[in-house]
Amino acid sequence: MATALRHNISQYQETTLGSPNAKSHVQEGKKTLERELARAKISANRVAVVVANEWKDANDKVMPVKQWLDERRFLQVSKTST
């Protein structure tokens, strides 16, 4: 999907270069397509985490980054205080 969106970005640039407001049209279209690409990457990442968690037992599940950072911070504080 990402390669298709990248292809759409370049194709959009090529087709709009002949118009009088080509630069602004290209920039607006490129921003829109780049946002769609970013959303697709986020969705793919979320799906990958869910699939990875389905194959793991409770002790090996992928944890959210915020939770991991909180636990890491807690462990570092407890390690330095002992």
Quick description:
The chain has 82 residues and is mainly alpha-helical. The protein has helices at residues 2-16, 22-54, 65-81.
Keywords:
mainly alpha, single chain, 3 helices, 0% strand, 82 residues
Q: Can you tell me the number of structural domains?
A: 1
The average pLDDT value, as a whole number, equals 79
**Count of helices?**
3
Q: In oligomeric terms, what are we looking at?
A: single chain
Broad structural category: mainly alpha
The counted number of beta strands is: 0
Outline: elongated
Work out the strand percent: under 5%
Helix content: over 70%
Q: Mind summarizing the main beta sheet?
A: none
What does this structure look like?
The chain has one domain. It contains 3 helices and no strands. The radius of gyration is 21 Å and the shape is elongated.
Write the layout of secondary structure elements.
Blueprint: H1 2-16, H2 22-54, H3 65-81
